[in-house]
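Cross-posting from the modeling subforum.

Setting up a comparison between two proteins and wanted a second pair of eyes on the formatting. Protein 1 (sequence, then structure tokens):
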Amino acid sequence: MRRAPAVTLVLLLLAATAVGPATAAAVPADDGVAVTSPSDATDHTTREGSTAPAPDGVVHHELTRADPGRVRVALEVGVTTATTAFRVTLPAAVEVTGTDGFDRAEGTTYEWDGRTAAPGLTYRAPVNRTVGNSVRFAATDDWALVDMTDVDTAFSWRSRGGTSYERRFAVPNGYAGAAMAYLGDYRVANASAAGQRFTVVHPTVVGTPVEPATYAGTLAGVAEGLSVGARDPAVTAFIAPPPVGANGGEGGVGGLATGADLWVAADEATRSDADGVRVNEPIFVHEYVHTRQNYTLAADTTWFTEASAFYYMSLAPYQRGTIPRERFGERFRVAESFRDATLTGTTDAQYRVRATKGPRTLAALDRRIRASTNGSRTLQDVFRRMNEAEGNVTYAVFRSMVAATAGESHDAWLDRHVAGVELAQGPVPDAYPAPGTTAGPAAAEWRRGDEWVPLATTPLPAGIPVAVRHPEVGVVVRPAGATTAVSGPGGDPATVRLPAGEATLRVETFYGRNGTTVMVPTSDDVDGDGVTNADESAQGSDPYDADSSTATPESGRLDGGGNGTEGAAFEDGPGFGVTGALVAGAVLVGWLVVRRRHG
């Protein structure tokens, strides 16, 4: 679940207005380039707050626990010598408990008196928040999990010459991220990957059977497989004590992301299976994906936010081998009541439509993009274009991004499945081969008369449609100079037309980047009766039966590829191994399908 960061509006412009980034003055943690080991996780207990004055040019917010439901904020401004006026506006619901050098102007707006070197305010801010039955943020007698937007301030100033101000947060009795803070005793661990540093803050008031470093390592591992741009240099994940997330959050996810920070409910952070207790990776993936969404969406594309998070929360753990195949399809089941919904027409109230029909549709779109680009591009490339876009990403813009990524239009398909009600074909686990596993059985097949035969059975007929399929997984068959054929999972056949002589086919699974190149002999006259396959098809006779033709053979016609059954030549594509043995002059070919992570 994602909540977009609130936009802070400065109400009064004196001369120039600037709201700096929310940089966190956090308690130092062990600095590890890789994952810190469990024994390295650092414990932090509460201590007295800081009394050092705010440096010049800093608007300093210090958070401490107050009473249940609220936190105390001590605000201090390091006024620069060039500043002639300074105003600060507090959140509407706060209770001001003290001022020093600030006078109330109107409402919750206070103005500097122009004399005090380090003016300040203290106030108590309510932080409890509940959506439906789910507690999102809370403050108790012992701890608090805070959304910074509930305690943050807007400020403006007038100065002689240039000057600037930076917003900072400090939690001397806890840990501050960029968008969230935890107040209370905690343990912390770090990991780094893909240009990002991950910090996991684990409160000591709640126990989980997994060490903080393991959570951090999970996030780092997931980050390496998601190449969509919009990487924050630092991501902070909080393990949230009950009652936060006790009811799973909207959609039953059990987490929340805001900006570069996220929390995962302690009760949802781990799961148990036959192999023991481990990190509940899908929920961490879901919330991490939300931290990578840096686009602005129009009303007809807002579905993408949850749809993409739910898609990758199934795909990434399965490809990493951390969830079993039987759990893979959980997020792609669509209730009968949602099947007639259009994604472009959904609202936030239709969360479950976006969370089920949305990821199912994106899985099918990902497959189509991979098929169009020979596996060189994926849905992640569309995701990256969205993050890089200026202005709103509308459905029309989204369609154009898909076309630009795929190298061909998919508008008709999108109009049926995204803007229309048609349900996309659901993905199957075999289309996502895990590392080191085979796709099996070995070969794709083509239909010769009334039977399916291995692709190694040649020649294939030229000049007429040839049905191809894979018995278990979807394949893309790419004849040189001809139309690509896509065979869906479950053995649904597709059709290609091959040139005479020899055809070059590339056979690849939907979700693999690489494939196996197959040199296949073809023939204009596959049954050797002197009548072309095309002529036999036109007259209604069987091109595979020499006795069925009623046409007169063409004099002097050269056969394009020979007759009988020959061995097809296979060449390894990158990342694929070809296993085969020469048996009775025929080649038995298998593909070792290697899964490549999204990149």
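Protein 2 (same layout):
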Amino acid sequence: MKLFFKILLLILFFPHCNIAQQAKIYSLHKLFDPQPASGDFIAWKNEGILIPIRFESNSMNRIKVSYSGPNADFQIFQLHDIWADFSAGNCGETKTNGTFEKIQVPDRAERKPDLTIVPTEENQWILVFLKFQASTDAGSFPFVLSFDQQGKKTEVAGSITVKDRILRDLSDLDFYSDFWQFPISMADYYKIKPWSEKHWEHVGEMFELLRQINQHSITTSVFWDLYNTRIRSLDEMMIQVKKSTNGSFSYDYSIFDKYVELAHSKGITGQISVHNLFPWNGFLFYFDEATSKVQSVQTQPGTPEYQSFWRPFLLDFSEHLKKKGWHDKAVLFVDERDPNMTLDLAKWVKNESPGFKMGFSGDFYPFLSEWMEDYSMPMNVVVDAGEMRKRILSSKKTSLYTSCFEKSNQPNLLLTSDYRDIYFLTLLSKAKGYDGMLRWALNLWSTDIMNSAIYSDLPSGDAHLIYPDGQVSVRYLVLKDALEEISKLEMHSKVQSPIEMLDATNRYFLINIEADRYQMLQSMKNYLND
């Protein structure tokens, strides 16, 4: 009996004695199927590294995280589970009608500036970020990560080899990201009025996150967003289109201008991609003063109805862009539409308003290429070397993209993708001689996106890379890391030709064979850090 009371007193007055703790470093592959890692890392100066930690404890007390090791910027992210499904390669009806296994993936990354985490489960994922300063000494050093819960501590140790090379800032990278933005989706998620003061704050936050992954392009639309699946009010249009009682059109560019100017203020000053000229659903919209309602008309390029609507817009928009000094940056973008109709549209646009640039995402068509100043293609497309040379010599932009069509064994940026595939996709784009990588949705959020990425018609993660409230995904952080690998490759290229390594990356079978793909990636990593 006396022993029982002694134990009880120990528990009451020294509760941390009852805490069972364990922390381990894991590979940055698939955190939902974790594989232990050695804890040995290599980094250049000015490079960041990501270290996934799974902290296990039967206590829900706060966790204070600390780091000791070579001089570095030290950050931590608490990872939150998001529901996902294994539905890669299934879009639209095949996804809607299918049945897919569900799993929770630690994808939502919440930065903790105070280095303290309130665990939400006994197995808590933590992502550690270390960025080594240019002044950091080169050499091999031990490091220790400590986790403290009310005085009860556990540690994980590893080693870091800091190379005597300084990585350039990503802003100097000759390789861009192009993630299409959905600002109206943001307003809907937060349940605020589009283009209200609060909405603009969130848009500015979005641009700041985009700048960090070397985003160059600003996604704009004539109407509400890229796909306009429902009619909204006139004041929510990015460019407000009005039809007067005499049949003439007028345009209010104030929201469009503010959107572009805000992007510029955040450091995104490149291309202005303008969507809606050839939309998926074929609808165009305008506010009709005769009926005091927003009207919709379904039409196709080449028809008299289509041309009578878009001709005055192109002429007026062209003049507006010239006044703003933006005409040379504007690209009228067409997404996966019929190539022959797109060609006819491009010819018509350039005839009606010479000087406009055109962009296209979809399969490669040589007859279309010369008309497209910006061309993005799926990763499995092989462009003839002569056609690629033409694009390079004429300073036309070319990029790679993935979407919902890639199969489960193929690289993508889904929640169920292996993170190594993000490195592969950036390297593959570089190996093909492209200028960057595009993806169709940065933030097309559902109402429950903070908990679930299961969509009725899309694979999990296909529609978003970032989360609300300034939070990002692990995929976003891995992409930043992958861009640093591209920066290393560009710096290597100034010293020695990496052509053999790039050719190895561009072998077609790697798209479908995961084991060979990851072996190649490890070889590339060894080469870049050699």
